[in-house]
Amino acid sequence: MMGVQQQKNQRTILMMFIVLVSFYTTGIGKTIYVDNDATSTNTGTSWADAYWCLQDALADARNGDEILVAQGTYKPDQQVVKTARSRAQLTSSGDRTATFQLKNGVTIKGGYAGFGETDPDARDTNLYVTILSGDLNGDDRPGFMNNSENSYHVVTGSGKNETAVMDGLTVIAGNANGVNQDSKGGGMYCESGNPMVINCIFVGNSARWGAGTENRANRYCHWTFRIRKEYSDQGFRGSRFFLCR
Q1: 211-233 pLDDT, tens per residue?
Q2: Which of 53, 113, 171, 220 is close enough to 187 for a disulfide, judged by CB 3.0 to 4.6 Å?
Q3: Percent helix, strand and coil across the chain, each to the nearest 5
Q4: CA–CA separation, 74 vs 56, rounded Å?
Q5: Which residue pairs, CB below 8 angstroms and at least 24 apart, start in 38-44?
Q6: DSSP E strand boundaries for 113-195
Q7: Full-prediction pTM beyond 0.85?
Q8: CA atoms lying within 13 Å on the CB side of residue 37
Q9: Alpha-carbon distance 43 to 50, whole Å?
Q10: What is the pLDDT of residues 144-172, one digit of tens each?
Q11: What is the C-alpha to C-alpha distance for residues 184 and 153, in angstroms, rounded to an integer?
């Protein structure tokens, strides 16, 4: 028969194995900072050294990471390039298919005061508004005028689960006036996914179907958000949800 000490040793090994599996499955994430007012190294390691573009932070993010985004406006076609003198410069491609693609295991949180404020970690989504905008040229006019070059989908959550989180963001100026999936979900498009959307606002988006959001989920969603002033050719001005089995 197995001795008492041997049994204890086996239980200890089993517990260590469970802890290690949990560690590598969940991940010990880092904090990534985004602030288009930052002035230093553009590495995302602090508010002073924050990434200027949310896309760069998403490219850097891994499972368990949290992206903190300061007040300001961020567009999916923006990128930082190095000039001939190795200086970082913010550029825009004008690519309408560019979108903020959510990632499993990554949380994006807006509403931070950011660089230059007395307390850059202060968070108030009403006071420090973080905007994700599809107005690539920055020339939209009231009544959804002048938006022909806007992003088809400002945010995309297709195929993502509830560990892909966006929290405290305002999504504006998507224009899904294309064909097939590019005709749906100007603010956010989600096909067969279940990302978590918390305390977000969708406003001033347009589409042929589901102007604010279009979600064809494989199960029920974890979404708490507000829809305002959306436009759709087919009458679905807010959001459309389809539960697919």
Answers
A1: 777 776 555 455 665 665 555 54
A2: 171
A3: 15, 35, 50
A4: 11
A5: 38/114, 38/115, 39/115, 42/80, 42/88
A6: 130-133, 155-156, 165-167, 170-172, 175-176, 188-191
A7: no
A8: 14
A9: 6
A10: 888 999 999 999 999 999 999 999 999 99
A11: 8
